[in-house]
Amino acid sequence: xxxxxxKEEVYSSKISYDGIFSFKDLYVFCYNWLxxxxxxxxxxxxxxxxxxxxxxxxxIRWTGGREVTDYFAFEIKVGFDVKAxxxxxxxKGGVKEKSNKGKLKISVKANLLRDYDxxxxxxxxxxxxxxxxxxxxxxxxxxxxxxxxxxxADEFLSQTKAFLDLETAEK
Length: 171
What we know:
Elements: E1 6-21, H1 23-37, E2 41-52, E3 55-67, E4 72-92, E5 95-114, H2 124-137, H3 139-170
Helix pairs in contact: 1-3
C-alpha cells in the first residue's frame, strides 16, 4: 500500500495502565490479536529501549495494513509507551513466576485508505471520477468500512485493557 490515494482518520484513542503485567505476554497478545484475529499485516517501525538502573523505558510503533477491496484498505497505527518497567516475581497459584511492573500507555489510530494503489491518480479527470464514484456510487460502503474499522480499533483497545485487568486479577 503506497502513499497514493486518500487517507481518512476514523478512530483515535488511548488507554493507560499502571501496575503488574507481563510485557512479553502483552506484546504477543496484541500482535496476535491484530494479525491472527483481524488479518492485519503488521510491521514494527520502531522499537527502542532506554535502561536506567533496574528499570526500562520502551517505545514501540506498529503499522498494520489490510486490503479490504481493490479500492479500500484499512491501516492501524499502534504505539506502546512503557515507563519504569521493572522485573518482579509474582506468586501464581503457589508458583513463583517472573512478571513486570510499570506504567503503560497504548495509543491507536485507524485510517481508511481509498484508492490505495492510485488507480484514480493518473489524471485530473480520473480524480474527478473518483469523487463522483465515492459520493454517488459507494457512499454507503464508505460509511460501512469506516464503522467496521473504527469498531475493530476500539475492540483492540478493549481487549487489551481486558487482558491487562485479567492478568492483574490472576496475580
